[in-house]
Predict the structure.
Amino acid sequence: MGMTTANRRSETRAEWQPCKIDNRKALTNIDAIEQVVMLAEGSALCPTFFRVAKRPLEYLAKRLMLTKEQVALFSVFVNFSDRSQIELRDISEFLGCTQIEILRRASDLEYLRRLRYIWRTCSSSHAESYIISQQALSAIKDNREFAGIQTTNLTINQFFEHLKKYFSERDASQCDSNELTSNIDKLLEDNKHLMFVTKLKEYKLDKNSQLMLLQGCNMYVNSEDTVITLNDITSLYEYEYIARDIITKLNNNDHPLLTLGLLKHFGDDVTSPDYYELGRVAIEELLVELNLSIHKQHMVQHIISHSDISAKQLFYNERERRQIEELESLLCQERFKAICDRLEAKGFRRGFAILLYGAPGTGKTETALQIARTTGRDIIDVNVSELRNMYVGESEKSVKRLFSHYRTIVAESEVAPILLFNEADAIISKRSEDISHAVDKMENALQNIILQEMETLEGILIATTNLTQNMDRAFERRFLYKIEFHAPELQTRCAIWQSMLPTLCDADAMTLAHTYDFSGGQIENIARKCTVAQILSSSDTLPFETIRTLCNEERLDSLQNRRLIGF
């Protein structure tokens, strides 16, 4: 007959012989763990092991506030602390027992995990895996006492640090929704002294709604990502029927978080049901204990102050000059507010969307900067490439977040800043009719959100682009003012040459203007190279032929072809 599991286990234990350890040596955390590990190998944690390892186990039990059984398990985990994942079969193989034996100690494992001695991780296999808590490992190395990560009597900031960890674990699939709910329930129960917890209970929310609200609060406090998507909501729950029920109530505007004002449609746009944000009631009632001024700092981190913009003389063709002067006049604060009020009274939207388009190097970006300087408006410089994130859903959230922050800044500012989309070709191009590919679908969703936001814009948006042939007609309609920048005409080019190179006589400036149909950016580039040449030659002037040589070098092709480059 074959040997039973019990017989094999008995034989293993009978064969196991504990190693010799020095019981006279003064112990430290590391010394004690080393002795436990040496004695535990192959022992299957049998009674004899606990007898011979009594001294280091008792030492560690006091230092770590654990039982002897928990100390033994934790010590073996520490032995594998150099691994990115520790699976239960690693522990069972080391101890010389079956994984069933380890599972019999599930309550001890759960205690170690709940107090964050160990963390559950994502495993490439279906087996449970863990890592050692850095806090516990640091305490061992520093020979300090450690009682696990406590959740009682926390400050409000400590409370939100724990909340952040719990939601991060859920995002990383390190716990399921039941465990997340259990952790949060204990966190709330242990911190009834906080106004946040008291107020939360007054709303009498069901468990699923409370979880949604806490997630929204966590995002508002702990990250810049204050936009809550349906995916953020549904990913909290294990069962699809819960997610479907929540989505239905949100779409019908009868979810308790919406009716209580704790959650709202992003930007108050009920036509965009996929995006939400924390409601004003939640911010003013629930989060009153927190100093959220730090949270708002990221809203202004890309702002260019108008006072930091250097004055620069720009040269325009006559038609462009008139349009820009008119625009500067409209955007002066004294007139701008009156115009916006008048538009609103007539039922029009208050926002101004402006498109500056044309050939490279014609001064579009610099014009936007000089408009900001002369009208006393700061600029929020949008990094278009950051908005077009590679992850599905993240781009849309970035755009929503951007416009939400801009609305906040406009509401809080005496002079509305300019929202600048520089080189916006990628986001105002024609939307794809074929949305079978995920990338095309994402790009269309991104553009649709920008179009919606432009409809409700309060403030000033300026976009610059070199390419208008491929611009979507929907964007074209939403730009109230459209100024085309042409290559400078003869007289304008002559003025630019004389401005950039004051030593040129009138005749030479006109010769250069007539011979080379450069943009302002190209002329500036040549002027910079002239300055370098002057420094190298220790001369205040350059021969005219040298300037012409630099002009010829500016072209990539021959004089006959006359194809030019810009910036």
User: Anything to note?
Assistant: The radius of gyration is 34 Å. The chain is about 55% helix and 10% strand. The first strand starts at residue 86 and ends at 87.
